[in-house]
Amino acid sequence: MGDGGLGPQALRVRLEDTGYLVDDGLAIACFLALKLHRPIFCEGDAGVGKTALASALAEVLHAPLIRLQCYEGIDASQALYDWDFPRQLLHLRAAEAAGVTDADRLEGELYDRRFLIARPLLQALETHPSVLLVDEVDRADDEFEAFLLELLSEYTVTIPELGTLRAGTPPVVVLTSNRTREVHDALKRRCLYHWFEHPDFARELAIVRGRLPGVAARLAEQVTAVVQALRGEDLLKPPGVAETIDWAEALDALGATEVDADLAVATLGSVLKYREDAERARSLDLTAILAARGV
After folding, report:
1. CA spacing 20 to 30 A to 107: which of 74, 85, 180, 208?
2. Taking the CB of residue 31, how many other CB atoms lie within 10 A of it?
């Protein structure tokens, strides 16, 4: 890849130039992923920047981002490749109409590369350079994990009708998990691991200001302070950085330059996604929270 020779510090600067702030541990993990062709396994609560890392890497490397969204029941055919049955059927009918009766020839034509539908994993193996995001791998099952482990160990795939396809240059792979269940150690061992913490106040404020430079400075500070306080409450789903940005953007869109208690309550849907959490937030004293945080 064009920027694969970047050192850890230079890579960190490039990532931050995209608006994605990283710490030393993550910068080194990204550098080693490029240097050693190892996937990065990103684990942590939703909304802490795991998925955004893949987008930032794709921007730094001038590479397309190819995303595989995992879900319960996903299998190899949905993630790797499939045959375009309707086009195969049309080709078969056209061949029969033209008088082609050679069964071996017809079969060979039906399983030609032009009828193959490349799903995200195959797309990533065949695209150089590329960044492959395997999002929410914890939602898939054990069988799919084993399949992923095999594919990421060799960056090859065998298609019975076409043979073995090997990535000339392995894609940069980012796997994310919200830890809804434990992912097997075998897959983790293949990867470089990074746990994503919620950022401290200064770092989160820097992220908000970087993503929303037009938002009033005081509003950004106050929103960040309130979200930091909310994470200390017993919530079903503590807000992530993505929700902090969403809330600041919503308040700014309504013309606010600082947090107003009534407006904050009216826009809680931007930052909290459960009724119980919203009720808990409404019981808090925002004025006291802001005073305690010095904003």
Report:
1. 74
2. 19
Pair of tokens at residue 108: 């060979």
**How are the residues of the chain apportioned to helix, strand and coil, as percentages rounded to the nearest 5?**
55, 15, 35
Q: pLDDT for 142-177, tens place per residue? A: 999 999 999 999 999 888 888 888 888 899 999 999
| Cα atoms in the 13 Å half-sphere on the side-chain side of 140 | 26
pLDDT at 104 over 70: no
> Would you list the domain boundaries of the chain?
8-73+124-196, 81-114, 201-290
CA–CA separation, 171 vs 155, rounded Å?
Answer: 9
Q: Could you write out the DSSP letters of every residue in 103-159?
A: HHHHHHHHTSGGGEEE-HHHHHHHSSS-EEEEETGGGS-HHHHHHHHHHHHH-EEEE
CATH topology for the 8-73+124-196 domain = Rossmann fold (3.40.50)
Q: Please, are residues 188 and 148 in contact by the beta-carbon 8 Å criterion?
A: no
100: helix, coil or strand?
A: coil
Please tell me the pTM assigned to this model.
0.84
In 3D, which of 169, 170, 149 has the Cα closest to residue 41?
149
